[in-house]
Design brief:
mainly alpha
Length: 154
């Protein structure tokens, strides 16, 4: 669960859809049958790719790193033999799935950062004066600057 200062930087529905997709993909990883030792590297590569995508989604979805810090995996087993290696990969996927499910299930408790549309609608003009509501949206700030430069060049 992200800390109390974390905010969603993307719409909650988009984050929820991404988390559900990754949970489904992780479940698919768990269902891969392992019959040959050569499959270990393939399964491990799939896990790493899946894990990297999870980190990207979490990183771009929250305003701070608290959710990403909580998501970090345990170390993979680096010994020899099919069973221990596969068991370690499987256990990592299971743990990551639990963490993704926890994020998903608690997403409604995390507030969204103010959207660009909302921020730009909160800029009020009264004659030549401009009143801006303070915020931390760099996208909204960029849009405002661009709109303001258009207004002053007319």
């Amino acid at each position: 669960m992200p800390d109390a200062n974390a905010r969603l930087t993307r719409p909650q529905a988009d984050v929820l859809a991404d988390l559900n997709t990754q949970i489904d993909r992780g479940s698919e990883l768990l269902s891969i049958p392992l019959e040959f030792s050569t499959q270990i590297s393939d399964v491990e590569q799939r896990w790493r790719s899946w894990h990297q995508r999870n980190k990207l989604i979490i990183g771009k979805s929250f305003s701070n790193d608290s959710a990403l810090d909580e998501y970090q995996p345990v170390a993979l087993y680096s010994g020899t033999g099919i069973d221990p290696e596969f068991a370690a990969i499987k256990r990592n996927v299971e743990l990551q799935l639990q963490k993704l499910a926890s994020l998903r299930d608690n997403l409604d408790l995390v507030e969204e950062v103010e959207s660009v549309e909302t921020a730009t609608h909160r800029v009020e003009q009264h004659g030549d004066e401009i009143f801006i509501v303070h915020g931390h949206s760099h996208v909204a700030q960029t849009h405002w600057r661009r709109d303001r430069s258009r207004q002053t060049t007319r």
